[in-house]
């Protein structure tokens, strides 16, 4: 399977802990996106990378959130001092062209 | 801001046709996407419209009217496996998608 992959698929953590998620995009896709989805809602844009450059970061991302794509390939999303409101599905997508975005299976975060 | 509206739920019978409407008011427009999402799974790409008109792809068709801020997704010959959430998303610039809350379609035998 050469689709977008995300790890882990599920993460349960206690409030106040730090968590890190990984996304591996489809090979040769230079564009990478992070979204967050809560139950009953559509995904919300978090951030966008073109190659290794982070071109936009949503105001939804507080200072506790940071994303990197150091070599223009895989990306990580870190949440520091997690809060119960951070519980959601974190989705990664990648694309080569503007008229597409292919989503990975997501990481479901539960903060207790 | 972005405002994207679609019905919350729709129910249809196997073999029938269902049309899911989406209206949008966004600060920019650079294309409209439709995605299918089964419960607990990632969204799967269905269609992309950037010009006015109808795009047909097998049992699924998508229509766009930019002047009216309106799109619809047409699902024909419904199958049980089509029961899912259907998401309308507008690309407001080169990369950012703004999604509606999704329409849950239930297909009954």
Chain-wise SSE layout:
The complex is a heterodimer of chains A (112) and B (109).
Chain A: E1 5-7, E2 10-13, E3 19-24, E4 31-37, E5 44-50, E6 53-57, E7 65-68, E8 75-79, E9 88-95, E10 102-103, E11 107-111
Parallel strand pairs in A: 2-11
Antiparallel strand pairs in A: 1-3, 3-8, 4-5, 4-9, 5-6, 7-8, 9-10, 9-11
Chain B: E1 3-5, E2 9-13, E3 18-25, E4 32-37, E5 44-49, E6 53-57, E7 60-65, E8 70-75, E9 84-91, E10 97-99, E11 103-108
Parallel strand pairs in B: 2-11
Antiparallel strand pairs in B: 1-3, 3-8, 4-5, 4-9, 6-7, 7-8, 9-10, 9-11
Polypeptide structure, described:
- The complex is a heterodimer of chains A (112) and B (109).
- Chain A is mainly beta and 112 residues long.
- Chain A is 0% helix and 50% strand.
- Chain A is built from no helices and eleven strands.
- In chain A, strands 2, 4, 5, 6, 9, 10 and 11 form a seven-stranded mixed sheet that branches. A four-stranded antiparallel sheet of chain A has the order 1-3-8-7, with no helix packed on it.
- The radius of gyration of chain A is 13 Å and the shape is globular.
- The relative contact order of chain A is 0.34.
- Chain B has 109 residues and is an all-beta fold.
- In chain B, 0% of the residues lie in helices and 57% in strands.
- Chain B is built from no helices and eleven strands.
- In chain B, strands 2, 4, 5, 9, 10 and 11 form a six-stranded mixed sheet that branches.
- In chain B, a hairpin with a 2-residue loop joins strand 6 and strand 7.
- Chain B starts with a strand and ends with a strand.
- Classes of the chains: A mainly beta (112), B mainly beta (109).
- At the A-B interface, strand 4, strand 5 and strand 10 of A face strand 5, strand 9 and strand 10 of B.
Q: What low-confidence regions of chain A span 5 or more consecutive residues with pLDDT below 50? A: none
Order of helices and strands of chain A: EEEEEEEEEEE
Oligomeric status: heterodimer
Low-confidence stretches of chain B: none
Which class do the helix and strand fractions of chain A yield?
mainly beta
Largest sheet of chain B: 6 strands, mixed
The largest β sheet of chain A comes out as: 7 strands, mixed
Rounded average pLDDT of chain A: 94
């Amino acid at each position: 399977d050469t689709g977008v992959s995300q790890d882990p698929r599920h993460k349960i953590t206690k409030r106040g802990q730090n968590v890190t998620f990984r996304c591996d995009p489809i090979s040769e896709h230079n564009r990478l996106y992070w979204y967050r989805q809560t139950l009953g809602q559509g995904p919300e844009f978090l951030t966008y990378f073109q190659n290794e450059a982070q071109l936009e970061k949503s105001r939804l991302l507080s200072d506790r959130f940071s994303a990197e794509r150091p070599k223009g390939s895989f990306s990580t999303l870190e949440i520091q001092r997690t809060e119960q409101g951070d519980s959601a599905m974190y989705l990664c997508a990648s694309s080569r062209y503007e008229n597409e975005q292919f989503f990975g299976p997501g990481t479901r975060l539960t903060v207790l | 801001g972005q405002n994207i509206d679609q019905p919350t739920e729709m129910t249809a019978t196997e073999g029938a046709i269902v049309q899911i409407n989406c209206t949008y008011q966004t600060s920019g427009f650079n294309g409209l996407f439709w995605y299918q999402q089964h419960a607990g799974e990632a969204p799967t790409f269905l269609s992309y419209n950037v010009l006015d008109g109808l795009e047909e792809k097998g049992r699924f068709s998508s229509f766009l009217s930019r002047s009216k801020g309106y799109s619809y997704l047409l699902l024909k010959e419904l199958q049980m496996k089509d029961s899912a959430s259907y998401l309308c998303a507008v690309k407001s610039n080169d990369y950012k998608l703004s999604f509606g809350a999704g329409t849950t379609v239930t297909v009954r035998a």
